[in-house]
# Entry
Amino acid sequence: MRREAGIREASPTLKDGLKEEAMTTVATKREPKPLNGVDTPTLFATLGAVAAQPDLAKFQFRARNRWLRGTHSRTEIHGFSGAGGEQTHAGRFVYDADHPAVLVGKDNGPTPVEFLLHGLAACLTAGIGNIAAARGIRLESVASTVEGDIDLRGILGLSDEVRNGYQRIRVSFRIAGDAPAEKLRAIVEQSRSRSAVFDVLTRGVPVEIEVEAV
# Structure
């Protein structure tokens, strides 16, 4: 299956994204059980809590980056706010980014635009896992390939007619589980329709940049 390509607020994503699954569970009187590594009972309990207290859905994620040398920088992700207060991940996640030698870098990590592809694939896959579990479908495997086409004449300042970012993104999924192909495709489609990263990429989001020069 091939298909082209934030959580601004978790409330509409969570509430709308799982509403169908919650209604199906109630209608069939099916007791939700953990599936695919997803704590499905807690998933539905979270939906109920957010529906009752919408402010719990307001999250702010943060990343702190520091330049090291050349095109090499390092980002740390640890704290965020949400569910009514300040939160922290179980550990500090550190990611290096750089350019390959062919783009005058030292290849200390993936390029920033490659991280974007990872974010899209990871967001869609997470949604597939949750939605399948909520629908009582056992997954056997989910694999994807994400390709982004970019013309570097834009960011190199060699052409004003070429955009700086990707011109086209393609996502190819291969999914297997104990459900007909039509239902498996519907899970991927539901994940796409509720994906925060897909939404940011396809609909855009205001970005503000502040500079303190010292």
Notes: The first strand starts at residue 2 and ends at 4. The chain has one domain: 2-61+110-203. The chain has a mean pLDDT of 88. Strands lie at 2-4, 60-61, 64-69, 72-82, 85-97, 139-149, 168-177.
